[in-house]
Amino acid sequence: MIEPVRPIAIEDVEQARERIAGTVLRTPLVKLDLGPDAPEVWLKLENLQPTNAYKIRGATNAVARLSDKDRAKGVWTISAGNAGQGVAYAARKLGVPSTVVAIETAPQTKLDRMRALGAEIVPVSYEEAWVAAENHAFAGLDGTFVHPFDNHDFIAGHGTMGLEILEDLPKVRTVIAAIGGGGLITGVGSAIKALRPDVKVIGAEPETAAPYALSLREGGPRRFTDWQASFVDGAGGKSVTDRMWQRMEPVTDGAITVTLDQTRDAMRLIAEKSRTIAEGAGALALAAALTGQAGDGPIACIVSGGNIDLGKFCELVTA
Q1: Which end of the chain is less packed: N or C, by CB atoms within 10 Å?
Q2: Residue from 258, 255, 247 nearest 189 by CA
């Protein structure tokens, strides 16, 4: 049975921080030098996590919260790569088998890393994966399902990022996070709004897949009928589900839609300034900040991941 949606309490986030300590890194928050006329921007480098993506936070908390009985069945999730790596990493640490229903167009880097962490891969189309995510089920898998975004404990784990941002940058005025399923921005937004309701929390989506911006404009969860696949594979869903709308809408202050060219430029800038690699989804927050729509800052941009084939990265940033 699917649990009813309930708010992410600050106590949930604080307990998650204790639970994931020792597995998850406290990632650095670094200032970008963009010149006097640019907004003040800081990068939260989640691409430096052991799995090179933020999903390890939620996955570690969610798998740790399972009962011994549920863990003994093995765990499975749905992923374009980053959630799968996070769940596989957490499962391996606890000696639990894992399976990932993986979107078949995921970068080879992500598929290889999931297998290296011990996950069994079940390749499916994007549409099949999204249906499984909406239904919380996939035929033939009997283990314990760890939803990659619509899971209270998964989301609470992501909220630990919000605690770190407020501690490292007390003067922050805006936090920007990419939106795929919505778990990242819900977790971070819940923590920040509990402690600093004056701080704005804004989502970032690519123009090819921006269902949250559409949902905000129309006042309720919507399907993005013009969805297109792109190199931004770790964000930009086909729809906002009813359950995630209930979670996201109370803890966010809007969404910014960016072009693929703006995303490529942000990927290049992150590499030039921080000497780290961001995948497409990981660069969305910075791309949004650079539009000017988020104000002058200080703005904390979450670089959510860096799992991209190096050849593809070079092709994108040198185009």
Answers
A1: N
A2: 247
